[in-house]
Specification:
The protein is of the alpha/beta class. Helix content is about 40%, strand content about 15%. The chain is built from 10 helices and 13 strands. The protein starts with a strand and ends with a helix. The structure holds nicotinamide-adenine-dinucleotide.
Length: about 325
């Protein structure tokens, strides 16, 4: 198939690109490099399936029109977005433009060309988990940050195109994802930041009490879920979660990564009002409709990530 992948030079995007290429598709990557980097797709560059890397933004409607007209995409995996909760609080306009308006621009092209769209939303749209069986897709949502609000708005537009135009479209909500190629600075994910600080001999700083939990999904499991969502019409018009099905407090995560508790410090939370106290995924629907289950345990995933951070100069 001919596939457009937005955000393909980002952390999860490069793993999705890799999987799509391994599956034999022709892939065009569109990324404005606002948070991605070309080094992420370096090893894919010579793959004959990678047709082009286009440095450009989903806010450029003329560029989108040109790409869709020229290549007749079968699927658009739409991952390009602003992803940082704190940035969305500081500057909601950028997140709203990229995550909501940008998605609308993608949808309009998909509608014109009958291109299936896989919209990458996030677990950050959910309200806190309240029971042991985890968060299903029917769990209440809560726009606790402009990031979540912008994703919910975009999700609704995506589903409206399914209902109003019969566009093949799916909303996917992966839980917090980690692994090689995630940034290790302040804008990165908690696992990458903790490992980097451990290796650099710095303290691991936890926002607030550290009792908040996350369901951490290893990136290759996440990419497999994303890719599968495009391949079947069984999920069209649906919202589908994916997570490990196990949550861990940030305190326990820090202990697992660094061992030595004297290296852990607690600092004032930067956005307590937008924190989600408990995130635990129920992936039964992904299992039923996509035959998807995670295969990498948290301990294994942390080890793979640490090896990568230890051996690469990318960060
Ligand atoms: N990392 C996670 O834990 C997680 C969990 C669930 C969902 N997601 C979603 O997955 C997607 C990828 O996230 P990620 O963690 O890989 O982050 P990332 O920042 O590495 O990837 C996003 C990519 O989109 C690009 N981008 C941003 N604005 C763009 C624009 N206007 N036009 C074109 N490209 C643009 C960035 O340069 C970046 O390469 C995002 O949609 C995010 O909301 C992430």
């Amino acid at each position: 198939m001919n596939i457009l992948l937005t955000g393909g030079a980002g952390f999860i995007g490069r793993w999705v690109a890799k999987q799509l290429l391994e599956d034999g598709h022709q892939v065009w990557i569109l990324d404005d490099l606002s948070n991605g980097r070309e080094e992420n797709i370096e090893e894919l560059r010579n793959h004959q399936g990678l047709k082009s890397f286009i440095e450009g933004t989903i806010l450029n409607e003329a560029l989108l029109e040109e790409l869709f007209d020229a290549h007749r995409f079968d699927i658009c995996y739409h991952l390009g977005a602003s992803i940082n909760v704190q940035d969305s609080i500081d500057d909601p306009g950028t997140t709203f433009n990229n995550d909501t308006i940008g998605t609308f621009n993608i949808l309009e092209q998909c509608r014109k060309h009958r291109t299936k769209v896989v919209f990458m939303s996030t677990c950050m749209v959910y309200d806190r988990c309240t029971d042991a069986s985890g968060i299903t897709e029917a769990h209440p949502i809560k726009p606790a940050s402009p990031y979540a609000g912008a994703k919910i708005a975009a999700e609704n537009m995506v589903l409206s195109y399914y209902h109003a135009y019969g566009l093949p479209a799916v909303v996917i909500r992966p839980f917090n994802t980690y692994g090689p190629f995630q940034k290790t600075g302040g804008e990165g994910g908690v696992v990458a930041i903790f490992i980097k600080n451990k290796l650099a001999g710095r303290p691991l700083a936890i926002y607030g009490e550290g009792t908040q939990t996350r369901d951490l999904l290893y990136v290759s499991d996440c990419a497999r879920f994303v890719v599968q969502s495009g391949y079947t019409d069984r999920v069209d018009g649906e919202i589908v979660n994916a997570g490990l099905g196990r949550d861990i407090t940030i305190n326990d995560l820090a202990k697992t990564i660094v061992g030595d508790e004297s290296r852990i410090v607690h600092v004032e939370h930067i956005h307590p009002q937008s924190e989600i106290q408990k995130l635990l995924c129920n992936s039964d629907k992904a299992n039923r409709l996509l035959d998807w289950t995670p295969t990498v345990s948290l301990e294994e995933g942390i080890q793979l990530t640490e090896e990568w951070i230890r051996t690469t100069n990318l960060i």
